[in-house]
Amino acid sequence: MVKDITPTFPPLLSGHGLAKDKVPMNWARSRAGKGKLGAGDLVWSRQTDYMRYALVLEPDVPRHRCGEMVFVAMTAFGDAAGALIPPEVAITYQWPGCILMNEGQIGYVDLIIAEEEADGVPDWMVLSIDIQMKPDFEDLNPGENYHQTTMWDEGCGDMTRTELLESTARHTLNAIHNWSEDGFRPVHEQWTGRLSKENPVAVPISSDIDRFIGLDESGNALVSADEKNSDINLFEALSALRSHRQNG
Known about the structure:
Layout: E1 14-18, H1 24-33, E2 41-45, E3 50-57, H2 63-66, H3 68-82, E4 91-94, E5 98-101, E6 104-113, E7 117-118, E8 121-122, E9 125-132, H4 161-182, H5 185-193, E10 211-215, E11 221-225, E12 228-232, H6 234-247
Parallel strand pairs: 1-2
Antiparallel strand pairs: 2-3, 3-9, 4-5, 5-6, 6-9, 7-8, 10-11, 11-12
Helix pairs in contact: 3-4, 3-5
């Protein structure tokens, strides 16, 4: 069993460790809504076979721009993990929030935004990431879902949850700073550079999509279906993916 070492975070982040049976996103969302957590509070799970955390943010941009944080988080994880894993392991992305290793899904980025707002700016939002580092060895049918994999299965078994969590937190903080200075364009370009060529849109959202064209300025997907171009709302897709994961 891997020893559970408490992670160390940059000074701008305040860590809150949760028991293994608690979901960081749910815990952070509830307390942010009650004003008990604020910007920079990072809620992380003590599970060691997964890296799960939720970061509370207080946006200073309108609601329609908040979705940019999903892509900031995905690219930050790509940089963080890329610095730790073997060079032959490929990290790619699927819209709206899936992270892949060697074309198998290892995790997800999610974002929930407060309904309350002032002058068009939400009071808070919670950005979360959920990465499966090791397989569930109690699963009687491993490999049944070919879309899924783990970091352990892809040759990254020596990495600990704490190493990955610390690196991801640092890279995310730095990526948010760069986004605030340089805008969404560099994030968009970096994300597109790691977009999965085989399956750019995550199951189950891609069933009737012929081609993924790209992102609009708010992170919505521009797609072609039945020879007609249309867009898919980012937040609706995140909600659909969230429901699929919970029910799956």
